[in-house]
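Fold it.
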Amino acid sequence: MSFATDPPSRILSRLQISHKGQKHAIKAPALAADLGISDREVREIIHDLRVTGEPICSGAHGFYWPVSREDAGPCIAWIASRFQQMRASYEGYMRGLDREFGQSSLFDEEVSA
């Protein structure tokens, strides 16, 4: 049997095997200490894994692998809320740039919701 040695694979395996469901979540510092990396690296790796399609959840008690859609619900709500906040920030930022420098369509094609 071969074991993954790269941090992303180790994080994914660990969550899928030992941290299923919200009540078995693990906090970033504990995961980081086990892997010999920083908390920030753990969060960056989790982000990258999510971008590739891994449904890693997070909540007040840490990171976990969902056991159902309902188990993932709080994380989905949090991500959707963050998306809305970032969208509002982006739109306000762009209005400010338009006010300061005139209207531009430079980013309009790159970012569409």
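The chain has a mean pLDDT of 90.
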